[in-house]
Design a protein that fits this description.
473 residues; 2 domains; 18 helices; globular; transmembrane; AlgI
Length: 473
């Protein structure tokens, strides 16, 4: 069930009505749990069983860990949770990838190994809810949190439909306490929630799908080499598309939760205004980057064991972060490039970080633009379907395909240029402020006009109802 569909609008209206009727809090939570299962089952009902399995295993494991002080037993219980969750994720998401790579390895040894046919469907959102339930077990193991007192609260934490299939990846200490007490959206929360839903759907339907998707598809779907201009503009289009698509989902999810009386953490903070790559990852997919930091980078040693080990930890974290996004070596390279960027940035900060010239406004702006351009190079590997396609686009971007053919019509060139410039301007204007602050300073008539315009554009945009890009992860 897509947020950008009429089916969801009807579903959401029913859920909102039931949640604001005078039922008991326990009944309302049951309604939300049933609604969450229905929401997920709209894609493929049998996959509900996987969510039930993760829920039951992590519920019992956490309580067993909490009741014992025997460290070896606690480790065994944690291992059960990790093996079940990563086992499910590995089988459905990486099984075919591992088989194909095993076939390639055997071929290098002269062994003709035939990969069995793999017809397993990837469950939507499996990477998100797997990481969320694993965080629960890990927090209990490290004694950062106690297990939930009520199974209903925990089951709802795992399946809460606004963020179930594409995040934000919510920590148990953030969401479970909200289910323990009565939550009711105030008038302000309801208005804010509906406003955020409108903004999120505008980003997805109008910008990502209506304007940028076709441009990116034309460039990345070209059979022949493209011109330098088209290669850059197609990549800029994808950079804007993936931001508008994923930030649009997160904003809509936060808005939906808010109309029900719940708060979800922010997942984006104007990342294309980042100055440097550590700043980018503090602003992009915040719930994943903090998850990787807290549950992978820091346990590996973080930056506490010298510069060499720090760089190794950074690289391992980003490589695994890339693999989390998809079962393909192009995603691993995408993550590896970010690891290299972060390591290089650390060296540069050690050398020049305290210099006065680095802090000048013009230098900061140039560093921000350099960050944006280098981020776009990584997006090539994220978007390309193969290495030959990725390297072909990179060659075109740097003018090494002299016979490149133009694929973008003039109107597309204008559209992507305008959208990219406006997006960068908005990100830089909002870099050190918040949407709440800007809204508070804006007259209500102007806000109403902007809101109405976004709604109008959402309605008139003739899209194909595309799924959100991050559903595949």
């Amino acid at each position: 069930m897509l947020f950008n569909s009429l089916t969801f609008i009807v579903f959401f209206a029913i859920v909102l009505l039931l949640h604001h009727l005078p039922f008991s809090w326990r009944a309302k939570k049951r309604n939300l749990l049933i609604a969450s299962y229905l929401f997920y089952a709209a894609w493929n009902p049998p996959f509900i069983i996987l969510i039930w399995l993760s829920t039951l295993v992590d519920w019992h494991v956490a309580h067993q860990m909490h009741r014992t002080e025997h460290q070896a037993r606690r480790k065994r219980l944690l291992l059960i949770s990790i093996m079940v969750n990563l086992g499910i994720l590995g089988y459905f998401k990486y099984g075919d990838f591992l088989l194909q790579n095993w076939q390639s390895l055997m071929a290098t040894m002269g062994i003709d190994y035939v990969v069995p046919e793999w017809s397993i469907i990837l469950p939507v959102g499996i990477s998100f809810y797997t990481f969320q339930t694993m965080a629960y077990s890990l927090d209990v193991y490290f004694k950062r949190a106690e297990p939930s007192k009520h199974f209903l609260d925990f089951a709802l934490f795992v399946t809460f439909f606004p963020q179930l299939v594409a995040g934000p990846i919510v920590r148990p200490t953030h969401l479970i306490p909200q289910f323990e007490t009565v939550r009711k959206a105030s008038k302000k929360m309801l208005i804010w929630g509906l406003g955020l839903m409108t903004l999120g759907l505008f980003q997805k339907v109008v910008i990502a799908d209506g304007i940028l998707a076709t441009i990116a598809d034309d460039v990345y779907g070209a059979r022949d080499a493209v011109t330098t201009l088209d290669a850059w503009l197609g990549t800029f289009a994808f950079a804007g598309q993936i931001f508008s698509d994923f930030a649009g989902y997160s904003t809509t999810a936060i808005g939906i939760a808010l109309t029900l009386g719940f708060s979800l953490p922010s997942n984006f903070n104007y990342p294309y205004a980042a100055i440097g790559f550590s700043d980018f990852w503090r602003r992009w997919h915040i719930s994943l980057s903090t998850w990787l930091r807290d549950y992978l980078y820091i346990p590996l040693g973080g930056n506490r064991q010298g510069p060499v080990r720090t760089n190794i930890n950074l690289m391992l974290t980003m490589l695994l972060g890339g693999l989390w996004h998809g079962a393909s070596w192009t995603f691993v390279v995408w993550g590896g490039l970010h690891g290299i960027y972060l390591a290089m940035e650390r060296k540069c900060k050690n050398a020049w970080g305290q210099a006065d010239w680095v802090k000048k406004r013009l230098v900061q702006l140039l560093l921000g633009l350099l960050t944006y351009l280098l981020i776009n190079i990584t997006w090539v590997f994220f978007r390309a379907q193969s290495f030959p396609q990725a390297f072909g686009l990179i060659k075109s971007m740097f003018g090494m395909n002299g016979d490149g053919k133009p694929v973008l019509a003039t109107i597309y060139i204008i559209e992507v240029s305008v959208v990219t410039l406006v997006m960068l301007w908005v990100h830089w204007r909002m870099r050190n402020t918040s949407l709440e602050t800007v809204v508070a300073r804006t007259p209500w008539p102007l806000l109403g006009l902007i809101w109405g315009t976004m709604l109008f554009l959402i309605i008139i945009t003739q899209g194909s109802g595309d799924a959100f890009i991050y559903f595949q992860f």
